[in-house]
Amino acid sequence: MNETSAATPGLAEETEAAAGTVQSTDDTVGEIYVDDPRMTCRNVDVYYGEKQAIFDVSLDIGKNQVISMIGPSGCGKSTFLRCLNRMNDTIDGCRVTGQIKMDEQDIYDGGLDVVPLRASVGMVFQKPNPFPKSIYDNIAYGPKIHGLSDNKEHLDSIVETSLQRAGLWEEAKDRLDQPGTGLSGGQQQRLCIARAIAVSPEVILMDEPCSALDPIATAKIEELIDELRERFTIAIVTHSMQQAARVSQRTAYFHLGKLIEVGETDQIFTSPRHKLTEDYITGRFG
Amino acid sequence: MNNQQQQHQKTMDRVQQGLDRRYRQERHFRWLGMGAIILGLVFVSFLFITIISNGYTAFQQTYVKLDVFYDPEMIAPVGETNPQVLSKADYGGLIKASMRDMFPEVTNRREKKVLYGLISSGASYEIRDAVMNNPELIGTKGEVWVVADDDFDMLIKGHIDLRLPESDRRIKDNQLAWIHDLQEQDRVEKRFNTTFFTAGDSREPELSGIKGAAYGSFFTLLICLVLAFPIGVAAAVYLEEFAPKNRWTDIIEVNINNLAAVPSIVFGLLGLAVFINFFGLPRSVPLVGGLVLALMTLPTIIIASRAALKSVPPSIREAALGVGASPMQTITHHVLPLALPGMLTGTIIGMAQALGETAPLLMIGMVAFIVDVPGSVMDPSAVLPVQIYLWADSPERAFVERTSAAIMILLAFLISMNLLAVWLRKKFERRW
Fold first, then answer.
1. For the residues A227-252, what does the mean pLDDT come to?
2. How many CB atoms are closer than 10 A to CB B116?
3. I want to staple A261 with a disulfide (CB 3.0 to 4.6 A). Which of A208, A225, A255, A274 is the partner?
4. In terms of domains, do B170 and B254 share one?
């Protein structure tokens, strides 16, 4: 994890020479707006106690799109993601300022309570964290507490469609009453995705969902993300640039708490406009 | 290359030189550890052997067979057999008559008294109960097994040293002769001591039992559990899950940890001052005992419960919050069920501690001599450890074995409670 100055002088000259490359600036490079946003964030600052972790981030998250957030460790991408469903509320001393709206409702301003917010903004975590209950109960839990099912049959069908959408139905249909913790790592993560989509959220946040998985399981999840895009808006934090390139339509590059550059994934990976982005995606640091 | 090899050789030599010393240290350390464990085992087994060898005889009691004539003259002189008359009759007289019949040579008044002393003063109650259950017995003659006096019992169990001069013995030579006669006639038998489990305390060892103390302990622990468990768990959940982390909660935490280390007698004094003197609750009752023990056990339960809550991985909380569960739902649906085994373990260990606690109960008067078995939390009663303390203080030889027997019962309760805690932990242990 290096500072901007870590780029060697020689490289700096090189990039300066490249036409259209923007040098360091505090403003985000690229188009933060989208035509059809599901969530809009404006001037978001996040503080952990005295320490500021996110600096003035503004970003739109488009409907039925996958947006990936990349950047070196500690750049604040996970912190930003956790602002979107107020998971940061659970951390002592964490403070969020600025404005985050979902469908024109401010999620921090009392416009939307945290419980319905989290029901419509689901989350998948870095480490698969199924409840130590049966596979069925894992998925049925959300619909149950929100009263989404009218009866047992309805609940059964929610469980089935969620598992099918998460691509786990074939593997799990005969063992619904067995503990979710008995599945393999990749299956557990797909179970967590099924649990998230069981409450029919509009947005799914994924915090490095594949970092604990092997390549085959990762490939399955990536495939799944692509399918889920039809129904859900997905924001994914990832360490793997290849993954970002494979699954997302837009990419946001974070560096030291600032949103440096955002744009179409193809553009970011082929012709980054900011030097830091270029250094990162070409593997000079990170 | 050569230089490198030399260097390598040197390192090896150095390591070799110190190797013996390193391994020696390791061996010594292992021996020390083994020694400590063996020493501990020796102490524990010594304790158990002493207690069991002293106490196992208390589970048997000497009985004497008497030929009793249910003399209508003595039981119901006017021919009435209603319970009021029957309960007041002189059944001791029947026993005495029976004894006189068996030993007609004893005529001296003082000797007679010594002779009657062979039979427990409680024996007349046995005969009374038999007659009251079955008034038909009046006028008939029958064989009855009655409880022998404690000194008689001690002699039969071999606890009286006959080599001592007569004046130093509790059993005199003439008594020895009578007992010998009784044995000749097969009138003496050791039987299982049911009295020990069905009676309360008594001045007569052969009539004393632990039922009163066991019930007292039960009621006390009941009150203790009913108060300490919910309050302790609620306090732990609040402190761990809801309370902000600031100076106040830090102070509370330090104080709870300190309270766990406060000598138990201080809680007894507190109970005396607050519950008895201020609130005017009666002395010697399990209610107050339970309140005091609840105060004493609370810190243990809170600390154990907080540790159990802490050990629930945060990922479970995040998962529940992530699907939109409210904080309360997260706790009741996910965190508490996972923390419960740990909480229960802590609670059972706290209860076991409370079961063995004597000092605070002395302060609130549970050390009184109470014969009746308590029927509720408001009846005066003793508890097991206090009963042990009282019996250990009694001069009669027969109380020695009863003390040990009571310790065995208490230990059995403690061990089974701890086993329950281990079982619960094993059964509900989850892996993530």
1. 91
2. 16
3. A274
4. no
Buried b (16+ CB within 10 A) or exposed e, A255-279: bbbbbbbbbebebbbeebbbbbbbb
pLDDT at B82: 77
Average pLDDT over residues A77-94: 89
CA dist list (Å): A277 to B20, B112, B118, B273: 58, 114, 104, 73
Distance CA B97, CA B68 (A): 8
CB contact under 8 A, A85 and B323: no
Q: Which two tokens stand for residue A231?
A: 């129904």
**Where in the sequence is the domain holding A37, given as residue range(s)?**
27-263+275-281
Residue of chain B nearest A185, judged by CA positions: B432
Q: Do B432 and A92 touch (CB under 8 A)?
A: no
Q: Does residue A93 lie in a domain region?
A: yes
Across the strands, what pairs with A264?
A250
Do residues B262 and B378 both lie within one domain? yes
B66/B106 same-domain check: yes
Which DSSP string corresponds to B237-268?
HIIIIIS--SHHHHHHHHHHHHHTTS-HHHHH
Structure confidence at residue B139 (pLDDT): 84
Higher pLDDT, B302 or A18: B302
Question: Strand, helix or coil at B32?
Answer: helix
Question: Are the Cβ atoms of B315 and A129 closer than 8 angstroms?
Answer: yes
Q: Which parts of chain B register pLDDT below 50?
A: 432
pLDDT category, A198, cuts 50, 70, 90? very high
Range of the domain at B178: 61-191
Q: From the list B313, B326, B432, which residue is nearest A115 (CB)? A: B326
State how many domains chain A has: 1
8 Å CB contact of B430 and A125: no
Minimum-distance CB partner of B338 among A129, A132, A195? A132
Assess if residue A10 is contained within a domain.
Answer: no
Q: Which residues of B touch A92 (CB under 8 A)?
A: 244-245
Tokens encoding B374:
């308590």
Asked, for residue B294, whether it belongs to a domain, the answer is yes
ipTM, two decimals: 0.83
Least CB–CB distance from B334: residue in A115, A119, A131: A131
The pLDDT value recorded for residue A29 is 82
Reply yes or no on whether the pLDDT at A130 is more than 90: yes
Q: How many CB pairs under 8 A join A and B?
A: 67
Residue A248 phi, psi dihedral angles, 5° rounding: -105, 155
Number of structural domains (chain B) is 2
pLDDT by residue (tens digit) across B112-140? 888 888 999 888 888 888 888 888 888 88
Q: Which residue of A has its CA nearest to B245?
A: A92
pLDDT at A24: 44
Q: Residue B328 contacts by C-beta under 8 Å, 6 or more apart in sequence?
A: none
What are the structure tokens assigned to B396, written together? 């009669």
The pLDDT, as a whole number, for residue B2 is 63
Task: Tell me if B323 and A132 make a contact (CB, 8 A cut-off).
Answer: no
